[in-house]
């Protein structure tokens, strides 16, 4: 067992963990933060997306012990039913989900993804590497690591646009 | 995942020394491929050395006018680097064509080079696989081989190398800088870094046990029009069927490197030389000696077609 | 309530709540991650141990020996369940293969053991320590090779295996235009985002399962049959289901093994089927080979049509009923459909979203495109010419309950800009893209199923609905809430909906797109019963009282709902039972799909540029979630058309690409604009809701529209799905591809 200290949603937590424990399982099974979902456990679906030190990652493909002292934000840290984050509210308004299982990952991904655009990080859809422009194609490409089998895709893009203040395409 | 112990290295020396002294130790950085394989017990290290905190995360100019990329630079940061975007656009493009935003935020430069194959039989431990279990046979050759390699293969293995980044690195003639436990440093040209399967498909690169990649260096910029074209079964978040990295020089010369078709990033001098004869000639030169299966023979035509697309793109710009 | 006569005017027609677009009432729980799924019940079953399934390494044969020693002594291991210690087990009515294999092995990755440990890490590791000695036997894994051995199956869920009317052979033989083509569709995986998962706990001889299941009552029944215990000792709870698409219709290995594991170790156990196990351990949509023959006059009017389908399944399994739509969609006096079933030893084939039609339409609607081109008739016009307002196998005595197919075709075509299409392939170019348009009909049977609910009003006037209905992303919570709100005359916010618990009245469950219409009809029935009780208590004649604005109203008199309910509240329960209206009337949902694709002139990469469609499915209860159901289904259709295929290794007998990296489904970047128009329709013969199913209609035909668009773009007619790059470039010569 290894001692691990994390800051999760602004709260310091101390855990004794088998080093094999992924960040995802630490959240779900040890901290009972079950909003972060396990869809594939192999980085193939994006349901487990959380924000670590400001960046979105697949929490299934990283060990909790590797994040000693780091800041982790999960869906529970973005908002609660009584106090929704603007992205959470936009997903409700635009029906950006169906079964709800990929949803926390989509939302965490979307929040961090907008920061990536703001930070001028390019994507496969970026036309000119010299300048990142906001477009639906950019959003679709950047959100492609979050699979939604119910396929609320256009609604998710509408929700993100709404939050980004970009309105209709 | 087999039980293992975990330690966090504070320096390159400490990491290399631990690796040399602990049997079965492996470095872990991004972990996006290693943990994937450990969960399936395809990789079974007894000790993990976390190398995320030993520096090696800088991108800096070299004295020769090139670029030195720390082993731990994340794919996202490498692709977004101003110099890379300006002077090594093909590298930026290749990185962005790979994986997903989340994976690129974790995956490192060194880890990307060391990615293992996506052959489905390699991934199913109940199946024979010479790469996973030497001598057990190859289930892929007469099985489902649509995504696998068509050239550089052997009677033992037809697995493909899955990296996009490494294809661009190969095109740019990168060097892999390493350090061993005794502090020895060496520089391995990327052309020599990855090994063809031959009779030992489980040996994939030239690193000795405990040897750590410290950086990848790029020679001075070569200019030209740099493009990376990846063809896959969906629009994003999928491995390549065929990918082509290319630099078209203003003097009519060109360089090509290929992904998705070989056990390592594929580059053939004769293909570069054939640029004047058009995409088909380039493909023929690149794929001379190819031994595809019935299921993946289409990759020959697709390679030529991907090249044709690049030529078309280049002409449209001119 | 018996529904055996067409519905007349009823409170649903007011349309104050039903038929209005609403946000999902469980939305906040889903977007905050607070909606509890099956593996997350720390609240209900704290201290659950972790089970890990061991799947068979062979497709067919026997287990000769099992050595559990190493696993049993591994750190943290609490127990190992195998056929040797599980006790006598039966088999569920809905299961083809056994959920726990051994000594006989029926398919690859069939569960043969469960290892239970204190942590997930220990269970997963110990599962690798089992030593199992198999005796493999020769199996049959190749549908194409076994096509000629396929036999006529028993009549099943979808009706008879074969049907015919008139004299097909003669009529086809004399037809001026003949289309005779074969098509294939591959095995497909549901790939729902939440893996099959169950937390199980025993309290004495009583078992509770928190599970992810579309059909709560089926799960109870099949668990009882498998464990050989009475049904009343089993409680199944499934309030949130992270996608199902038919893959969670049945009791599966996670549920059985969690129950067996919990019994073995004396504490709650939870089990999720690992993603890499799902394609081979659970069910899948079976591959088909389809032959379609159409005989028409030179104007494309059909006189003869035949659709024959071959599929395979394990012994005792069922066929993929891909000819179903061909029995009802188009005119023609001379017709034939036939299904043949080969016995294969691949994993269990079963329902996946729109079983039958989803793949039948992939074939039929390409055949229709081929007919349109042969006759030189516009594909939309061709379908209008072949519309039929009655069951063409029976004749005018069995009319459709409602059929707005032509309206869908016309309105959908206008909205999409179909008139801009050049009917000659390979004519339109946009940079490196060859651009084409295609269309297809949408058709899915309208099934109905008996469904119960109970509804209560409390002293505050709050309405609560309880039914074992599930919401698998379909929007059940909201439409059930809307129905109760409309019936009881309260706002949607005043309704609490509780779903997915076997303690609640048995519902239709979620499947076959019958759930939305059937379950709300059951709620309607319960509300009618509650209204009667309330009216009686208020002293009003039940027939005349109006429920609105939280009041019972009779002329100038009114009483608050809350006051009438009284301090203890008032409850009523009823169920909807469907009579023979589905026999007297053909009932189906219709639509028209349109698609524009770009095909890279060099690489043959296909990119959807836009999709659109018009659909008629009776009353649309919640246009917001219904639209999402349709676009989601269109996207699954796009996956079927372009990329989805479980690749069969015919030597070892399994699906090789058994994870989400290798079994590719559409991602964001694959799906641009999707437009949905609902054509106004009320179907008074479907249910008191006058609604029909809509959850599966969107997949039926979507892929064919894409295939037809690819043809229009390139001139390449592919008939073997998925329509991948390798197949396109193989046919490049003579096409518009470079």
UniProtKB/TrEMBL annotation, chain B:
Q: Which InterPro entries does the annotation name?
A: CO_DH_flav_C, CO_DH_flav_C_dom_sf, Diverse_Substr_Oxidored, FAD-bd_PCMH, FAD-bd_PCMH-like_sf, FAD-bd_PCMH_sub1, FAD-bd_PCMH_sub2, Mopterin_DH_FAD-bd
Q: Name one Pfam family in it.
A: FAD_binding_5
Q: What is its EC number?
A: 1.17.1.4
Which keywords appear in this protein's UniProt record, sorted alphabetically? FAD, Flavoprotein, Oxidoreductase
The chain positions of domain FAD-binding PCMH-type read 1-223
- Record GO terms (molecular function): FAD binding; xanthine dehydrogenase activity
Q: Under which name does UniProt file this protein?
A: Xanthine dehydrogenase YagS FAD-binding subunit
UniProtKB/TrEMBL annotation, chain C:
Question: Which residues are listed as membrane-spanning?
Answer: none
**Occurrences of domain Aldehyde oxidase/xanthine dehydrogenase a/b hammerhead (ranges):** 32-138
EC number(s) of the enzyme?
A: 1.17.1.4
GO molecular function terms here? iron ion binding; xanthine dehydrogenase activity
Q: Which Pfam families match?
A: Ald_Xan_dh_C, MoCoBD_1, MoCoBD_2
Q: Which InterPro entries match?
A: Ald_Oxase/Xan_DH_a/b (IPR000674), Ald_Oxase/Xan_DH_a/b_sf (IPR036856), Ald_Oxase/xanthine_DH-like (IPR016208), AldOxase/xan_DH_MoCoBD1 (IPR008274), AldOxase/xan_DH_MoCoBD2 (IPR046867), AldOxase/xan_DH_Mopterin-bd_sf (IPR037165), PaoC-like (IPR049648)
Alphabetical keyword list: Oxidoreductase
NCBIfam families in alphabetical order: peri_hyde_PaoC (NF041671)
Entry protein name: Xanthine dehydrogenase YagR molybdenum-binding subunit
Per the UniProt entry, what species is this protein from, by scientific name?
Sphingobium vermicomposti
